[in-house]
Amino acid sequence: MKPVLLIMLIFIGAVLSGCGGSDSDSAPAPEATTVFSTMAAPASEPEVRDWLSSLSAKVSTVSSNILTSPALTWESNILPLYDCLKELGDAEDYNAQLMIRSHDPAVRALANVGYQQIPDLSAAIKEDTALKLKVLQSLASMIPSNPKQKEAKSYLNSFFDTRYTDAELQAISAANESLTAVSLLYYQNAVTKSASATFSPAEFACLPSSIKSQIPTDSDGNYVFDANSSLSFTLAESCLPEAIRERLNAVAHSKAASENAPLWPVITERRLTYAKAFGFDSFAQQRLSDNMFQTTTAVQALLDNIETITQPTFERLRQRFETIQASEQGYFPATFQHWNRDRYYSAVRAQILGPPPANPKLLVFPEVFERMLFHFGRIVGLEFVKSNSPQTWWNSNVIEYQVYDSNTGFPAGTFLLDPYQISGLTDLANAGYLKSPGILESGQIQVPIVRLNANLAESPSAGIALSSAEYISFAHELGHAMHYLLKPSNASTGPLEDYMEIPSITFERIAGTPSFLKALLSADPLSPLAAVPDDLLHYLQYYALNPVSIAENRRYYLVISSAALHASMWTGGVQTELSDLFRQGYSDYYFPMSDLAQPGYSYTHLIKPGTDVAYYMYLFAEVIAPDILSVFEASPDSVFDETIGQRFRSSILEQSAYNRNQALESFLGRPWNYNAYRDWFETATSQL
Questions:
Q1: Segment 537-591, tens digit of pLDDT
Q2: pLDDT at res. 685
Q3: Cα–Cα distance for residue pair 362/373, rounded to 1 Å
Q4: Quick count: other Cβ atoms within 10 Å of Cβ 527?
Q5: What is the pLDDT of residues 462-471, one digit of tens each?
Q6: pLDDT, tens digit, for every residue of 374-383?
Q7: 136 with 128: CB under 8 angstroms?
Q8: What is the dihedral of CA 101, 107, 108, 109, to 10 degrees?
C-alpha cells in the first residue's frame, strides 16, 4: 500500500477524469503525439463530497467486473483496473493540495477525511487475494498489442508485487500500516505547534512598532506569541534579550519535544519490523536498496569525502565565531541552539561582508518569475504560455500555463503556480506532480500537470520584491518542475530519491551565474546586460551566495544527513535516543551541543519518505551540481549553450529511474567526481 505520508510530502500525482474513463483534449495536439486531459478538479464543498463518494463506487465497479467476468480482457477489465489505480494515486495527491492549499475550511475538512480514506481504496484492491490471483494469472498469458497495454501490464505486476508471497505481502502491509500510523502522528506533532506564551510590553520594548503591531495582545495589553506565528524567525534574530529568545524557542518546539520524544522508540521498532518483512536487517538497508547509494557504507563514504573537503574552511569559520564571543551573551559552541546559530551566523556575516545591504528590488514578482520561466525554458527547450481560459483549481490564485516542447511545438504539459501563503497551513515552497505522465492505448503521451507552491507573502502593491532566499527558492523548485515536465512516463518517483535534488540544485547554481542574471534583468531577454548591477550582486552574495552560509550550511547538512542515516540503522537491542544522535552528529561535524538541548523532534525530514534515510541527497546534489555547471561554463555561451542544454535535458532530465549513474556519465562524458565541487567550495568560501 502506498504510504499515507507520501501525499503530504514530495511526489504529487493527479486526478484523472474517471476510473477507466476516456481522456479528453483541452487543446489539439500537433500530429496527435501528445494530449492534454481535463482534470476533475473539485474546488467546492459539494464537488469534493461527490468526488470522494464516486471514487469508492468506481473501485467497487471495477473490482466486481473482474471477479464476475469468466475471462478477463484488456478493454473490459485490465485497462479499467490500471486507470482506476492511477486515478486513486492521483486523487490521493490532488486531495493533499485541497487539504493544505484550499482557502475554504469546509473543503479542507472534507479533504482531511479523504486523506484517511483514499489510500484504503487502493489497499482494498491490493489485498483482495482472489482479485489479485485472477489478474496476475490472466496477465501471464496476455501479450500487449500497444504501449498502453504494455504499461498497464508492467504497472499491475509491480502493484501486486509478484516478488512476495501473499503471506509476505500481508506482513508488509500490516507493518506499513503500523509504521504509517505512528509516523503520521509524529509528523502532525512536528508541524502543529499549539503552545503560546505571554510577554509584557516592557519585554518587547525594543521591537519596532511595525513588528509589534502584528503580534496579538490580550485584555491586559500583554503580547501573546503563538507557536504558529509567521514572526518566529523575525523575533529570533531581533533585538530581544537572550532569555526572551529562549522562551520563544521553547514555545515553538514544546509540542514536538514533549509529544514526539516517546513516539521515537515506537517508530524505530516499527521501522525494523517493516524492514524485516522485506528481508532486510535494518530500515536503512531497506530504504537504500533502490537508491544510487545502496548501502550505509556508501553513504558514509560520501559524507566522509564532503567532510574532508569542507573541514579546513569550517575550522576558519569556527575561529570567526570565536572572535565575537566576548561581545555576545552565551557561548555558541557549548550551547548550540537554533536561535543562537542564527544570531552568530548574522554577526559573522556582518564581520566578513559588512552591514546588511538593502534589497535593491530588482527581482520583482511576478515579472521576474515570468522571465525565469522563459530563460529556464530556453536552457531545456520548453516554452511556457499563460492560459487565457484556465480551469478552476484548489484556490483562486493559481496561475495556469500550457507548456510546449520548443523542439517540436508539441504540448509538453500544464504548469500551475500557486504563489501566495495560506495563513496557518504551509510555510515552505515546494513542487511536484498533480498528474503524472502516461501512455494511452493509441501510443499518445499523456502529458503531466505540474504544480509549484511558492508561499510568497501576498502584497496589495503592484509587485513583490523577492528576497535573495525567495529568488533561489524559485530556482530550486523550478528545477524540480522542469524535471517533472520532462521525465518520461516510465520514470519512477519513488526509488532513487538521492537523484531527485540534482536538477533543482543545478538550477540554483544556474540562477546565480552572471550570464543568467544578465539575461534575466534585461528588458530584451535575448540581449543580456553588459554586467549584473552591483547592488544586486552584493545583495545576493551577502545573503544567498555568501561564504558563511555556504560553509555553515554544509556542516549543518552533514549533521542532519548523519542523524537521518543512523536513526534508521537500528537492528535491535538498545535504541539510540534521537537527541543523542543529533548531539553526536554535532560533535562529529559541527560545534558541541549542550546536553540540555532536545533537537530533532520537530525535524520532519526524519519522517518523510525520501528523506527519512536519504537526506544526504542534498549533499550529493551539492557535489554534482558544480560538475554539471562546469560543462556549461566551458562554453562561450555558458548556461545558454543550446547543444549542452539539449544534452542536459536528454541525459539528466529525461532519463528513466534506473540508469542514473549512466545518465550523469552521459552528460559529463566521464564518471562524476568531487573535483568541481572542491573547486567551487574553496572559491566560494575563500573569504573565510
A1: 999 988 888 888 888 888 889 988 998 898 888 887 767 788 888 888 888 887 7
A2: 92
A3: 17
A4: 9
A5: 789 999 989 9
A6: 999 999 999 9
A7: no
A8: 180
CA gyration radius, the chain: 26
Largest CA distance in the chain: 83
Q: Are 378 and 645 in contact (CB under 8 A)?
A: yes
Dihedral angle at the C-alpha atoms of 290, 291, 294, 297, nearest 10 degrees? -150
Cα distance between the two ends of the chain: 50
Q: What is the pLDDT of residue 334?
A: 45
Q: Does residue 66 have a pLDDT over 90? A: yes
Calpha distance 224→72 (Å, rounded): 64
Give how far Cα 684 sits from Cα of 342, 396, 544, 680, Å: 20, 42, 11, 6
Bridge partners, 282 (sequence order): none
- Percentage of the chain beyond pLDDT 90 is 38
The three three-digit cell numbers of residue 568, written as one number = 534508521
DSSP single-letter state for residue 30: G
* AA letter at 240: L
What distances in angstroms separate CA 630 from CA 8, 110, 122, 407, 530, one per listed residue? 35, 49, 45, 25, 22
* Whole-angstrom distance, CA of residue 255 vs CA of residue 681: 38
**395 to each of 89, 97, 136, 253, 423, how far by Cα in Å?**
21, 10, 41, 30, 13
Q: Are strands 430-435 and 449-456 parallel, antiparallel or unpaired?
A: antiparallel
What nine digits make up the cell of 523? 528588458
661: enclosing H helix or E strand: helix 660-668
Q: How many Å apart are CA 522 and CA 518, to the nearest integer?
A: 6
Q: Report, as an integer, the average pLDDT of 233-258.
A: 69
| Among the listed residues 305, 293, 302, 311, the one whose alpha carbon sits nearest the alpha carbon of residue 555 | 311
Cell numbers placing 119: 489510500
The three cell numbers locating residue 201: 510590553
Pairing, β 464-465 against β 438-439: unpaired
DSSP letter for each residue of 372-434: HHHHHHHHHTEEEEE-SSPPP-SSTT-EEEEEEETTT--EEEEEEEEEE--TTT--S-EEEEE
Under DSSP, is residue 324 helix (H, G, I), strand (E, B) or coil? coil
C-alpha cell at 579: 537527541
Tally the C-alpha atoms within 13 A of residue 559's C-alpha that lie toward its C-beta.
25
Nearest CA to 439 among 45, 33, 53? Answer: 33
Amino acid identity of residue 482, one-letter, is M
**Strands across the sheet with 399-405, in order?**
382-386, 399-405, 411-420, 449-456, 430-435
Decide the pairing of beta strands 34-35 and 445-446. Answer: parallel
Residue matched to cell numbers 519513488: 494
Cell 484523472 belongs to which residue? 16
For the stretch 170-216, pLDDT in tens is 788 788 888 888 888 887 777 665 567 889 999 888 888 878 888 88
* CA dihedral (187, 6, 562, 667) positive or negative: negative
| Beta pairing partners, 225 | 197
Identify the pLDDT of residue 496. Answer: 61
Here the cell at position 179 is 509504521
Taking Cα atoms as reference points, which of 39, 184, 76, 35 lies closest to residue 608?
A: 184
Which residue type is seen at 195? A
Element (H, E) at 554: helix 547-566
